[in-house]
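BUG: 3D viewer hangs when loading the predicted structure for this chain

Environment: internal workstation, default settings.
Expected: structure renders.
Actual: progress bar stalls at 90%.

Input used:
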Amino acid sequence: MKSLISLGVVAALAAAAPMTASAQFAKKEDALKYRQSALQLTGQHMGRIGAMMKGDIAFNAAEVQKSANVIATLSTLPWEAFGPDTDGGKAKPAIWKETDKFKAASERYMKAAVELNTAAKSGNLEQIRKVFGATQQTCRACHDDYRER
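Structure tokens produced before the viewer hung:
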């Protein structure tokens, strides 16, 4: 039930954050910094969980839960900073040419982040590992299509 509620919250947030730059971004550079910061923090927390999933560091369910919770929250943030005239950074021009496709990719990622957070709360390593892999795939797919290397 919690998972369904969480997915509903993500859907509502996605609908409320259309692909337009918010008034909070006075300059293009502000939008770039905002989205880059959210995505960089996401990468840090994905890396923490990933290190545990690979066995590079000992599995710690409480730490996975903390990072998964942060990832779920961060997953809702960067999208408003991809509005018109906010190109730049490592973002490919396709983001602004394929807005529906990009929005769908962001929604898949947000859903996966919620599922990761739910799995993390279980404390079950195998369940977390499976959902983490699926979450990584949503990240990778978006990076492949919309991020310059």
